[in-house]
Design brief:
This protein has about 425 residues and is an alpha+beta fold. Helices cover about 30% and strands about 20% of the residues. The protein has 12 helices and 19 strands. The chain has a 6-stranded mixed β-sheet. Strands 9-8-10-13-19 form a 5-stranded mixed β-sheet, with no helix packed on it. Strands 7-11-12 form a 3-stranded antiparallel β-sheet. Strand 17 and strand 18 form a beta hairpin. Helix 2 runs antiparallel to helix 7.
């Protein structure tokens, strides 16, 4: 039998060893705000602890970078963030000599960092042993607690289903329950710092979209055009900003002979008159917050059908924005778009969503059957989408739900289709 208690203490001396100062992802005051908000929601949900095992949610509490071995990022290892009414803990794998302990101590604000023992018995393939976890919860006086896990809609556990079911068997005195109502709220109602970072991202995202008419010309290959865009971004924006020039581009031409539908890599296709160019995001992020703004451009004079579809897309975009206010629902935003579509005789939309929150873990898909009520602090995108042989039409803008209505986080999509001289 593995002596987890002894092995768990092998590398603890590494945690506080002096080292070069690393800047955490956010200030201590932000961390305190996040765990205070979490504890308030935990009390309302009757939870004795919130147990986070996925990097998608866990990194919101710890850091975008550390620990980097959440189970959904490194399937052979595991990390557990456990928040109680009084304390906060991060259980993680220290690796060979505890060096990751030290890095995580320097880059997170978590109070207690402890070991997940990297030892198990065959035939288990993962190198950490689930059997140690009941002892962990017992040490935290949670052996009979009500523990909220990532079990609901928009949630993904950072451990296998088999492990979760086995953990229930190993902890018969505890209630391992769905904590997603708490998690969805934390992921969808944002702190002032998050909103500020998203504003910075959107500012840069709108800026890079505005460079398309400056750098796009007929005769350029996609490789050449995107290289110019990337160089322009690097020259304009500094620390904290990143730009991925590839991905999410769609180029369609009415004759259809060399349309380049939604693709993820740069190609040698040559831009020519008649191209309708679309990008599904800006490619920009600021300190981990992405500017998801969709825009379109046309090379040369656009035909009437392209102008008409663009105009309807813009009308849908603005009608959806008008529906964003506290007390309305995601389905109300969807309905506003559907009314414009019907007025213009567009076919009934059968499937899909046409907008979303900042994170998919927040559960804010703009969909006819999503009746989540909007609250101040939520961020909602309006994203009407239409696909045809002559173009992919999508204008996406980001709005903050305020106490009295909404606030655009950036310059909005233009009413008229931007035309680039061919």
């Amino acid at each position: 039998m593995i002596d987890h208690a002894r092995l768990a203490r092998l590398h603890e001396h590494w945690i506080e060893l002096p080292g070069y100062v690393l800047e955490p992802d956010f200030p201590r005051e932000e961390y305190e705000l996040r765990i205070t908000r979490a504890r308030t929601r935990m009390r309302a949900a009757g939870l004795d602890a919130l147990v986070i095992t996925s990097g998608a949610v866990g990194s919101w509490f710890t850091s975008a970078l550390e620990p980097h071995e959440w189970h959904d990022r490194c399937q052979s290892r595991s990390a557990w963030y456990i928040l109680t009414p009084d304390e906060d803990y991060l259980y993680m794998t220290p690796t060979t000599a505890g060096e990751h302990f030290n890095t995580t101590r320097r880059t997170t604000w978590v109070t207690h960092i402890r070991a997940i023992v990297e030892r198990t018995t065959w035939p288990r393939h993962e190198i950490w042993d689930l059997d140690q976890m009941p002892g962990v919860f017992a040490d935290l006086r949670l052996a009979r607690g009500r523990l909220g896990f990532e079990l609901g809609d928009c949630m993904t556990l950072g451990l296998s289903v088999a492990d979760f079911l086995r953990l229930r068997e190993l902890m018969p005195g505890a209630a391992l329950v769905d904590g997603s109502s708490v998690i969805r709220w934390l992921m969808s109602v944002h702190t002032p710092l998050e909103i500020e970072r998203l504003r910075h991202a959107c500012e840069a995202g709108v800026w890079i979209h505005a460079q398309v008419p400056r750098y796009l010309r007929t005769g350029l290959t996609e490789h050449e055009f995107l290289a110019r865009m990337a160089a322009a971004f690097r020259a304009q924006w500094g620390d904290g900003y990143s730009y991925r020039e590839t991905g999410g581009w769609d180029v369609r031409n009415l004759d259809g002979s060399d349309s380049n539908h939604f693709h993820a890599v740069a190609t040698d296709r040559v831009f020519r008159s008649g191209d309708l160019l679309f990008r599904s995001n800006s490619g920009v992020s600021y300190r981990g917050y992405a500017a998801d703004n969709d825009r379109m451009w046309h090379l040369g004079p656009p035909p009437d059908v392209v102008r008409e579809w663009y105009r309807v897309t813009w009308e849908c975009n603005r009608a959806m924005a008008e529906a964003i206010r506290p007390g309305n629902r995601c389905s109300d935003i969807y309905a506003a778009c559907a009314r414009v579509e019907r007025r213009h005789g567009f076919p009934l939309r059968e499937v899909g969503r046409i907008g979303h929150g900042l994170r998919n873990t927040g559960g804010l898909s703009v969909h006819p059957d999503n009746h989540t009520v909007l609250e101040p602090g939520m961020v909602i995108s309006v994203e009407p989408m239409f696909a045809a042989l002559h173009g992919f039409y999508d204008l996406e803008d980001q709005y903050l739900v305020t106490e009295t209505g909404r606030e655009a986080l950036h310059e909005l999509a233009p009413e008229m289709l931007p035309v680039i001289e061919a």
